[in-house]
From TrEMBL:
Subcellular location(s) per record: Cytoplasm
Reactions this protein catalyses: S-adenosyl-L-methionine + a thiopurine = S-adenosyl-L-homocysteine + a thiopurine S-methylether
One record GO biological process: methylation
Gene encoding the protein: Tpmt
Organism listed in the record: Glareola pratincola (Collared pratincole)
Matching InterPro entries: SAM-dependent_MTases_sf, Thiopurine_S-MeTrfase, TPMT
Spans through the membrane: none
Residue numbers binding S-adenosyl-L-methionine: 16-27, 56, 77, 121-122, 139
UniProt-recorded name of the protein: thiopurine S-methyltransferase
Gene3D superfamilies: Vaccinia Virus protein VP39
Length: 196
């Protein structure tokens, strides 16, 4: 499958931080994503009190929604501003602490304890730091990861999942020769080879 000129495209962490600083966050959905509501049963699979992971979470409103349902939510995001905005916009008090295993990283946790957001590169995380998850809501992570890092990303995600975990993935379909990304085009054949 030809992903066109995107194959070698690389977005730096600085470019992502700049998007947040400039408010250039068209990828953020104020009302939450309709596909999560549509496929929530697939993610939860009749289970309650799950640990759900939000890779590259931004300030996704679904984190509060799932936490309010009784689930434990963990997210990771490079932009501290995005995480602070999340807590502020939901009027959620939180505390902040360093993550000893990761230089410069912070963990921001709601005082209720059911939302923990890590401010660091996703590649600095491991199951020894964040544990394992029953569900993953990947709304904009795989399509935001640089194409050259996809295998590394999926390998990490696999190590963070419990045996019976559900992984809900949203991708975007378009002609990759007409748009340089992100979001990047990830053909279905590549998704199958990445996740098996």
């Amino acid at each position: 499958t030809d992903i066109g000129s995107q194959k070698d495209r690389v977005m730096s962490e600085e470019e992502w931080l700049q998007k947040w600083e400039m408010g250039n966050i068209g990828f953020h959905k104020e009302q939450g994503h309709p596909l999560l509501q549509k496929y929530l049963d697939v993610l939860l699979n009749g289970r309650s009190g799950l640990r759900i992971f939000f890779p590259l979470c931004g300030k996704a409103v679904e984190m509060k929604w799932l936490a309010d349902m009784g689930h434990s939510v963990v997210g990771v995001e490079i932009s501290e501003q995005a995480l602070k905005d999340f807590f502020a916009e939901h009027s959620l008090p939180y505390c902040e602490e360093p993550v000893p295993e990761i230089s410069g990283a912070k963990k921001m946790q709601s005082t209720s304890g059911n939302i923990s957001l890590y401010c660091c590169s996703i590649y600095d995380l491991s199951s020894s730091i964040v544990g394992k998850f029953d569900g993953v809501w990947d709304r904009g992570a795989l399509v935001a990861v640089n194409p050259c890092d996809r295998q590394r990303y999926v390998s990490l995600m696999t190590t963070l999942m419990e045996k019976n975990a559900s992984y809900l993935l949203v991708t975007v379909s378009y002609d990759p020769n007409k748009h340089k990304g992100p979001p990047f085009y990830v053909p279905e054949s590549e998704i199958k080879s990445l996740f098996g």
